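User: Here's a chain of 225 residues. Predict its fold as tokens.
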Amino acid sequence: LNRIPLNMLAFIVLIAVLCAIVRAQEYPLVPVEVYYEALCPGCQSFITGPLTSTLAHDDIFAIIDLKMVPYGNTKTNSDGTYTCQHGTNECISDVYEQCVLYKLSGNLTSIVTGETSEAAWPYLQCMEFAEGDPSYAESCFTDNMVGTGVEWSTIASCYADEGADTQASAATATPTHDYVPWVLVDGALLEHTNALLASVCKAYSGPTPASCKTLNTEGSVCLNL
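Assistant: Prediction complete.
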């Protein structure tokens, strides 16, 4: 059998890698925006269900530009305080989640841009599996955010000292909506939240990922009253 010289093999591998990079740059990521609140049952159902199952596919996660904003149907009061739809504990958990989004970059605008949402995903997911219970805030962080360079003490300090700022940023980031979860895929409202995977697959302009399949079941929501 003929053997391929090592230098030729290395060249072939290099070309394959470069081609993969070019293909990835050629096709834009699919924006997926999730506007939610920590204690909303419909939000928890979506995040722990369709969103988790969709992002579990590496080839799907790779084509998504994820943005998550924990604020939802929170109301800004005239005195600058905030009232959350599901009570004080929801405000506490929302702020913890906002602080993680903020402190991963050190830039408050990260809450608005969504640039840290992918890095924060393990924490946000853990909190929603815990039904948004703020008593899990520290353990979700220490269990999932090791290696990020951010300590829990930084998040705790943010919650204590900068909560009003993070809430204001999340309010700015949250669009007008009728209910939460308010999910946009490629800028369009996803009315049936269980169709997330199918919608991402449809919106992607590149070669169809192997994990693409169709889901069409309607999800649940919390009305913005």
